[in-house]
TrEMBL record:
Protein name: malate dehydrogenase
Origin superkingdom: Eukaryota
Domain Lactate/malate dehydrogenase C-terminal residues, every copy: 172-364
Keyword entries, A-Z: NAD, Oxidoreductase, Tricarboxylic acid cycle
Keyword set includes NAD: yes
Family from the record: Belongs to the LDH/MDH superfamily. MDH type 1 family.
Entry's EC annotation: 1.1.1.37
NCBIfam families, alphabetized: MDH_euk_gproteo
Complex formation: Homodimer.
Native source organism of the sequence: Maudiozyma exigua
Domain Lactate/malate dehydrogenase N-terminal span(s) in chain numbering: 11-152
Group of enzyme by EC: oxidoreductase
GO cellular component, one term: cytosol
An MF annotation (GO) of this entry: L-malate dehydrogenase (NAD+) activity
Length: 369
């Protein structure tokens, strides 16, 4: 229960970058839906949604607007030097702060700007948060490089020693959201037998990274895709890898995926809320994580096995079991069950690209010294 786990009956959810496309939609979902997760026996629990953005006018307006939504979730607006008040006693922080992609830009083009923003926010998190209990969900892109940027700051801080590296998650769930949606659409349009009911969605595991060909949709481990041709699967894989481009082009340069991302990150948040509320002792999630801790030791059971299969990469998106203490077990066996196309074609390309993305992130602090 939060009283034991948080030393308070309040669960504080913080969104940094709350006035943007993702931030606004995500905040609406939280304000309007999250209280449904609190059970009858948890009547002493309060939920506080704290929204921060450098855009003072917009974040104030968003909070004024959301404050009229008739749910018992407390909401507050923070801007400029209000970061300390926003972050103090945070239970979980979601970070969509940054610049989104424009047409023709890759996620990696965003790196320099967003690395600076995320790095500064990390300094404040280290200063104002209790790292021993905190969960951080990073949404800003490029995830493959920004998780390494954040990890380096977090583990080198004086506030270190709390295992925060086990509780930092790069959010990649939009890839499996897309993988499942595109598969369902294909099953319907091709009238393929899939074993699914009309209102049932397939679950497509996605591992690797969160940019172009670092994304590995594992259709071989989704029974609903069994009756599709290899050509169709190849098309689906490519569509998931570059699905973000469809949105950037459709919005004609005025934004990237915001609504589907807000939906996906809210799904992820609800899993963490189940942990914080004590509804379950552990959750299984897929996200982009560090496989080593602050002492360069394996971060959890299964880290060594995974690293031996991915040329010792330090970061990877993989299913994990997570408890209140953080990542507890890495479900590395998914790699052993890849089919030949996935393991011989997709995985080597992913590893090669991911290595460069990770190095870019790890070198960021050196480059600005
Ligand atoms: P947006 O431009 O609409 O919103 C970003 C917000 O961040 C703005 O309100 C801006 O004022 C704020 N911001 C900028 N610097 C800040 C700082 N230092 N502190 C606090 N707030 C700050 O962008 P959008 O569409 O919401 O995307 C946000 C990020 O999420 C982008 O980096 C984008 O690439 C990424 N993204 C990630 C996805 C994922 O699957 N992980 C999917 C889609 C987008």
């Amino acid at each position: 229960m939060p009283t034991d786990l948080q030393n308070t009956t309040t669960i504080k959810i913080v969104v940094l970058g709350a006035a943007g496309g993702i931030g606004q939609s995500l905040s609406l979902l939280i304000k309007s839906q999250i209280h449904y997760m609190v059970r009858g026996t948890q009547s002493d629990i309060r939920i506080h949604l704290a929204l921060y953005d450098i855009n003072e006018d917009m974040v104030s307006g968003v909070v004024a607007d959301l404050s009229h939504v008739d749910t018992p979730v407390t909401i507050s607006a923070h801007y400029n030097d209000g970061l300390q008040e926003c972050l103090t006693n945070a239970s979980i922080i979601l970070i969509p702060a940054g610049v989104p992609r424009k047409p023709g830009m890759t996620r990696d083009d965003l790196f320099t700007v967003n690395a600076g923003i995320v790095s500064q926010l990390t300094d404040s998190i280290i200063k104002y948060c209790d790292l021993s209990k905190l969960f951080i969900l990073l949404i800003s892109n490029p995830i493959n490089s920004l998780v390494p940027v954040m990890i380096q700051k977090l583990i080198s801080s004086e506030n270190n020693g709390y295992g925060i590296e086990k509780r930092l998650f790069g959010i990649t769930i939009l890839d499996s959201t897309r993988g499942s949606t595109f598969l369902k659409d294909t099953i319907i349009s091709q009238k393929t037998s899939s074993g699914l009911h009309n209102m049932e969605m397939p679950q497509v595991p996605v591992i690797g990274g969160h940019s172009g060909n670092t994304i590995i949709p594992v259709y071989s481990q989704c029974p609903a895709a069994d009756n599709l041709s290899q050509e169709t699967i190849n098309h689906l894989v490519h569509r998931v890898q570059y699905g973000g481009d469809e949105i950037v082009q459709a919005k004609k340069g005025k934004g990237s995926a915001t609504l589907s991302m807000a939906h996906s990150s809210f799904k992820m948040l609800t899993k963490f809320m189940d942990l914080l509320l004590g509804n379950t002792p552990d959750i299984t999630i897929t996200s982009f994580i560090s496989l080593r801790d602050s002492k360069n030791e394996p971060i959890a059971q299964g880290s060594i096995e995974l690293q031996s299969r991915i040329q010792d990469l330090q970061f990877f998106a993989i299913p994990t079991e997570v408890t209140l203490q953080g990542i507890n077990e890495i479900k590395y066996k998914i790699i052993d069950y890849l089919n030949s196309k996935e393991s011989n074609d997709l995985l080597p390309i992913c590893i090669n690209e991911l290595k460069k993305n990770i190095d870019q992130g790890l070198n960021f602090h050196k480059s600005i010294k």
